[in-house]
Amino acid sequence: MIASWLWRRWFGILTLKALVALAVFGLVVAPPDSEQGDAARLLYVHVPAAWIAYLAFFVTALASALYLWPRTRNDSWDHLAGASAEFGVLCTGLTLFLGSVWGKPIWGTWWQWEARLTTTAVLLFLYLGYLALRRLGGVSSQRRNAIAALIAFIDVPIVHFSVSWWTSLHQQGSVFNDKMDVTINDGRMAFTLWLGAGAFTLLFAWCCLGRMRLLGIESKNSELELEAAIAQRTGVPS
Predict the structure, then answer these.
(1) Backbone angles phi, psi at 167, to 5 degrees
(2) What is the pTM of this model?
């Protein structure tokens, strides 16, 4: 128990240090972009948040598939799916918000109904619906949730490839594009983007582990409450 607490504590400290380093590099070390100026600094959070949204929803889909597979069915997979989806929704919302703040000075507007933005908004509402579905409970709720997660994940590759499939105002990826051609010329800017991806990945892992633990406790408490209610109704000690 103590070892687990110490591990979570040191992992949290490492995550905090990575986020502080990202703030220093993003605000001080990395230079302004030659075309976008200081508005480009928003991308050091916007891009990692988008990356983690992809990762979180992939983890949710994978955990859901493992729950549906009889040989690997375990409540822990359901807890991981839920915890990961919650963080993914937060990152998707952050991605849209920062994208709008960035778009105002660069595009001259807060929002455009173009391919990348529209499909990302759809993705956000799909997983908000998934989280709402998880709260309904009921018989076979975990199986139902897992199927819903797999259906929602279909939109993730659509979001990613939308800038290639349709005419889009959104720029192509600077690192993860179709040609895998890195278009960032300044090493400090490239390093800051990678640092952001690493820091957000640590934050995602730390938050997921903590949230999974809470979901496990909530599930156990719900089972105990149900057993107590049944025992009280039937007069049989639990």
Answers:
(1) -65, 125
(2) 0.84
